[in-house]
Each structure stands twice: as C-alpha cells, then as structure tokens.
Amino acid sequence: MMKIDTHQHYWRYQPQEFPWISPSMPQLQRDCLPADCEAARHAAGVDAVVAVQARTLPEETTFLLQLADQHPEVVGVVGWADLHAPDLVQQLEPWCLHPAFMGLRHTLQDEADVAAWVNAPAVNRSMQVLQQHKLVYDVLVFEHQLPSVMDFCARHDAHWLVLDHVGKPALRGWNADRDQARPWFDHLRQLAALPHVMCKLSGLVTETQWSRGQGLSLADVQTIWACFDLALEAFGPQRLMYGSDWPVCQLSSSYDAVHDLAQTWAQKALTNSEQEAFWSGNAQRCYNLTVPTRAN
Questions:
Q1: Strand runs (DSSP E) across 80-164, as ranges?
Q2: Which of 49, 136, 135, 144 is nearest to 96 (CA)?
Q3: How far is 236 from 217, CA to CA, in rounded Å?
Q4: pLDDT tier at 177 (50, 70, 90 boundaries)?
Q5: Of 8, 71, 100, 279, which one has the fewest beta carbons inside 10 Å?
Q6: In which element (H, E) is residue 48 found?
Q7: Cis omega (within 30 of 0) on the bond before 247?
Q8: What is the dihedral of CA 58, 60, 65, 71, to 10 degrees?
C-alpha cells in the first residue's frame, strides 16, 4: 500500500527565523532536512512527503521547492506568501512552474486576531487568486480559533482547503474530562459539512502533555484514537489524510511511534480501500500529487 506523509517540515536552523521554537524545544534547535528522516520514513514504508512551511518568510517557498529538486520523495510543497501583498500573482508565477508546488499556508494560529486576518479584503482577494490557480490552502488554527475560520472556509469553495492537525484540540485537559471534546467536535462537524475541506490526522501528539518528557501515556493514545474516530465520523474516509508533523512530533514521540499510532487506528477503523484512501489516495486527489513508482 502506497503511503504519503502529508505534513513534514524542513529547515536550516536560525533562531531569529523560528521564534516559535522555544528554549524548551532543544530537539528542534538544529537543522532538520529530508535526509534526517529518511531511515525512519523508509522503515515505516512511507513513499512520499508533502513539505509544509515553517517560516513566514518570502524565501520559504523557494527553499522548500529547492529541497524537492534534491529529494524525489518530496512530491509536494505547501509554501508561504504574504496574502496581504498586492503582487501575489507575480510571486506565484515562478512557483507555479515547479511540479511540486501545491499551495500555501500561513501560521494563522499565531495571529492575535484570527477573525480580522481572515476577513481582510486583501487576504480574500488573494484566496480567490489561489483557488483560480487550483492551489490548496492549509488552515492552521487551535481549537478555540475554529469559530473564526468557519465563514472564511465557506467563502472559499472553488478548490480544496485542508484543516491541519484536526484543528488542534486541547488534549491536555481531556483526560480528566472528555466532555471538553464537545465544542471541538461540534466545530469539526461544521467544517466537515463543507465538501471542499479535507482534514489531516496529524499533530496531536504535541497537543498532549509532552513537556513532561515521558512520551505518550496510554490515556494519551486512547484520547488521540478517540479524536481520529470523531474526525472519521465528521469527514468520512474520503477526506482524511495522514501526516506525521515531523520533526515537531519529536517533542513528544518518534516518527515510528506517530506512524504506528495512525496505522493501528487505520487497521481497526477502516476497510482496505479506505486505508488506501487515507494513506495516499486522498492526498493525491487533494494536492494533485505525482508519486514516483516504487523500485522493485
């Protein structure tokens, strides 16, 4: 079964370019490049990767596309551009010539006023341009910010939008009170009612109490699987995709642990054809990916 990891990040570490990497994250304070994940990716049987922006800098997209040139397993790039910029069309022109360029993302979760950002006229004009170019937009928000992006996602329905990390539910408080999942799930269902929105089962291991330094507890694993079940109930098997969120996942869990978490769930929750959709088919359909044929 072909497998695509739809969410990896790469960087050459410069502290001033990564303000979100705090002193409590020494695992990330180093260069993280495709070769650093190659052995673990192969061991998990993952054939291809989508690289996703980690910096809000103009050179980010070009950097990721250059990595795609050097590493054939990087079959897609979700880069960054300033959606407030009046020259977005001109910025897109060289990137659209590259076969790996699939779309853009902004670290929306870090905006002080998410609603103001998504409702800005310039941003909405830029979104129209992206969708006219058949480019995907990844939506990155925390659970409490989901209400602010509902109208934005409904407005921009001419091409795929992707909800990253299942909307980043606040898992740290769920073990004691699972009823706290209800607002997140209600918002997830609202987004899933929009047929042009897909969802990545990714990023949840670092929504747990990873700062304890003890890895995932059994309760954490069960909570994550419960989230996967609810995402499946909301989106169905044809709009879910696998993502590792490497190297950020390493704050909590190794690459193989994240993969095995998803694989164990998928084998129990999905039919064989649904597993194929989850691991690769949905990603190919959404991002229009071309994956090299496996060598025999």
A1: 101-105, 136-139, 161-163
A2: 135
A3: 27
A4: low
A5: 71
A6: strand 48-52
A7: yes
A8: 160
| 89 contacts: CB under 8 Å, gap ≥ 6 | 129
What pTM value is reported for the model? 0.95
Does residue 246 contact residue 37 with C-beta atoms inside 8 Å? Answer: yes
Identity of the amino acid at 148: S
CA 52 to chain centre: 7
In what helix (H) or strand (E) does residue 15 lie, and over which residues does it extend? Answer: none
> Which of 266, 277, 262, 275 lies closest to 203 in space, CA to CA?
262
Which of 275, 169, 145, 282 has the alpha carbon at shortest distance from 231?
169
Q: What would the pLDDT profile of 109-133 be if each residue is shown by its tens digit?
A: 999 999 999 999 999 999 999 999 9
Do the Cβ atoms of 6 and 202 come closer than 8 Å?
yes
